[in-house]
Amino acid sequence: MPTFQQTIDADPSKFMTYGATVLKTAGSVTALAAKYGQEVGGLATSWQGDDYNGLLRWAGEVAGFTARVDVALLTVGATLEAMGASMTATVQTLKLTKQAAEGAGYKVLPTPFVILGPSQWSQVSSAGPGAPAVLAAYQAGAIAFTTALTAQYIALIAQDVAASSVMRTAISIG
Question: Which residues make beta-bridge pairs with 107?
């Protein structure tokens, strides 16, 4: 599981690039399987008998295997593209939320946990009798930012786990 900082630094758009490559590979597997089937079929005019019938049975097994590989590649490729886009959006939201917290003067710890920053503590200290109210307001903001960042972090982890699960299932089909 990646750390909060690793998720902030991540570039899930690479999943989309890899997904496109996997989809292209699926097309190559499909073309290769079709060419193999044509070659075996073309041998029928000059080759007959038990050996050729054995080759036809083997060609059927090859066709079944390549179809399963093709399905696995298409599933993995599409999953990588979709989850890459989703994860990219989540990472962007994480970054924007972190920037908003820091822009408001909070300090974002790498857990993620948001605490009051130096300027906020200075304002609390100089608030006199209103200090408890100022502190409470800043603490409420810190809790809100912590809750948002934690939810986004958990969502990103869930997306990563879901993508991994789909890919593992698809690969086991092949």
Answer: 115
Structure tokens at 57: 């049975």
Nearest partner of 148 among 105, 95, 104, judged by Cα: 95
CA-to-CA dists, residue 41 to 34, 45, 62, 146, 162, angstroms: 10, 8, 13, 65, 42
Give the per-residue pLDDT at 166: 81
The residue-averaged pLDDT of 136-153 equals 97
Q: Which residues of 128-164 are buried (b: 16+ CB within 10 A; e: fewer)?
A: eeeeeebbeebeebbeebbebbeebbebbeebbeebe
Q: What is the pTM of this model?
A: 0.78
Q: What does 40-87 look like in DSSP terms, one character per residue?
A: HHHGGGT--SHHHHHHHHHHHHHHHHHHHHHHHHHHHHHHHHHHHHHH
Count of positions (residues) in the chain = 174
Q: Where are the beta strands (DSSP E) in the chain?
A: 107-109, 113-115
Q: Which residues does 56 contact at the CB level (< 8 Å), separation at least 6?
A: 40
> What does the alpha-carbon distance between residue 88 and residue 163 come to, in Å, rounded to a whole number?
13
Of 13, 12, 8, the C-alpha closest to 99 is 8
